[in-house]
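TL;DR need structure tokens for one chain.
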Amino acid sequence: MWCGWHGSYSGGIFIVAMDPATGFPKPGQGYGRHLLGGHHARIEAPYVLYNAQTRFYYLFTCFGGLDAAGGYNIRVARSRRPDGPYFDAAGHAMSQVKGNPDVPFDDSRIAPYGQKLMGNYQLVLAAGETGTPLGYVSPGHYSALYEAATGQYFLLFHTTT
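>> reply
TL;DR here they are.
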């Protein structure tokens, strides 16, 4: 049974096989199977949601860091299996997403991958208003929820304004 997704801010996202009897990872698999990231790519917070209608598993991740200029943004990719491989909307294999080991935390190498759902956004001031408009900064660390009673999906996340 595959169901243990984990990862670090710069080491990559992995999935481990779980022992259904104990609820712990099965021994001898190290970090598990690599899904994406690594080489100091700022990717973290994996969350997977299965959609019975499409029969796809959707892997949500945060790209970027906690800052106002190009901070966290929520990305998604999908697979027919919980253990991958995952592909973005452009058909890119997410397993190929890695940072540049010679340039830590350079987001330009990972930017083309994953379908971006949400990122920083600054609202526009209404006519006659002054000051700095509000907006969303670094949305991330989310959960996705399917509400069966209404057939709706929700994305819950943190952000600052």
